[in-house]
């Protein structure tokens, strides 16, 4: 398991892409919308991990609700795992609660699930696995 990405909620990708390009000294490598999640993402490589900027595409988006409640900032930590199904079972046995136990298509060619922050010390944790690894 590794930190695959840090998810950061932003109001405007245009503004934040400029800020992160200046901060990291390089541009994003991908911009991708995932309508099911109500987000447009913008990815930056950072060694073994990535930064995923997230802009809401509609007011019902989890990102829109997060921004309304907490403003811009770190939204979630994504763990990269070898086998998402094995990890779901392991974590369920260890007492963690999933928002949905069924992996879904995420951005950047991943399968993803989320644990509920109430079972993870108030931190939204995402598990993600390369899609072509299954
Ligand atoms: C495109 C996919 C991409 C990828 O990597 O591939 C992504 O990462 S998509 C990211 C956006 N999608 C999600 O976040 C999906 C999972 N999130 C959810 O299902 C909801 O956001 C949920 C269930 C965490 C909260 O939704 P709810 O409608 O219950 O909102 P509330 O504001 O009522 O929150 C309830 C409770 O949870 C706390 N909360 C909400 N968001 C976060 C967060 N990001 N980190 C920590 N805690 C969070 C919120 O403060 C409430 O706590 P309370 O003590 O009741 O105030
Ligand atoms: Co993510």
TrEMBL record:
**Pfam families under this entry?**
Glyoxalase_4 (PF13669)
Positions of the VOC domain: 2-130
State the InterPro entries in the record: Glyas_Bleomycin-R_OHBP_Dase, MeMalonyl-CoA_epimerase, MMCE/EMCE_epimerase, VOC_core
What GO molecular function terms would the record report? metal ion binding; methylmalonyl-CoA epimerase activity
Provide the E.C. number(s) assigned to this enzyme.
5.1.99.1
Q: Which SUPFAM superfamilies match?
A: Glyoxalase/Bleomycin resistance protein/Dihydroxybiphenyl dioxygenase
Keyword list (alphabetical) reads: Isomerase, Metal-binding
One biological process term from GO is: L-methylmalonyl-CoA metabolic process
The UniProt family comment states:
Belongs to the methylmalonyl-CoA epimerase family.
- What is the designated name of this protein? Methylmalonyl-CoA epimerase
Species this protein is from: Kaistella carnis
């Amino acid at each position: 398991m590794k930190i695959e990405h840090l998810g950061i909620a932003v109001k405007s990708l245009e503004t934040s892409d400029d800020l992160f390009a200046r901060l990291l000294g390089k541009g994003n490598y991908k911009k991708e919308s995932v309508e099911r999640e109500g987000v447009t993402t913008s990815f930056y490589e950072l060694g073994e991990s990535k930064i995923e900027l997230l802009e809401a595409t509609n007011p019902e988006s989890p990102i829109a609700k997060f921004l309304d409640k907490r403003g811009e900032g770190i939204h979630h930590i994504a763990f990269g795992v070898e086998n998402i199904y094995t990890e779901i079972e392991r974590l369920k046995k260890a007492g963690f609660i999933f928002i949905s136990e069924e992996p879904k298509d995420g951005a950047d060619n991943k399968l993803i699930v989320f644990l509920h922050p109430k079972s993870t010390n108030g931190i939204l944790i995402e598990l993600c696995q390369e899609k072509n690894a299954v």
